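step: validate -> pass
step: tokenize input -> pass
step: predict -> running
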Amino acid sequence: MSRNFIYSQIFFTNILRILDERGMTQKELSERAGISTAFISDLTKGQGNPSIRTMEAISIALDVPLPLLLEVTDLDRQAMSELVGDKIPESLPPGYQRVSAVMTDYQAYIASEWDVTNQKRLQGPFAPRKRIKT
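step: predict -> pass
step: emit ->
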């Protein structure tokens, strides 16, 4: 799983969330950002690969700082599915899911410990191995 894929998924789900919250269409975003409607459509399906300039144009058109569009999305799987019509790319193996939640400091600590454990499990046999010098 590449990091670029993760950021693309985060970027497109945040765009979808903002469009939905504002009742804005992809066409309106396209016009405001100066980007083709087809490319916006590809982005919101998780198929586009936007440049930094394109992401910046979208952030300006949405009046949202670019870093916020690259933060973890707060859409759950069902909401994303409703927005993109069951075309959500899978980035994790079955039995795992990515979530965003508001929690206490202690809960966040426990969740971060779980995350570290699961990241190690996901790396499994594909994790880089140290070479033993002989």
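step: describe -> Residues 7 and 70 are 6 Å apart (CA to CA).
step: cleanup -> pass
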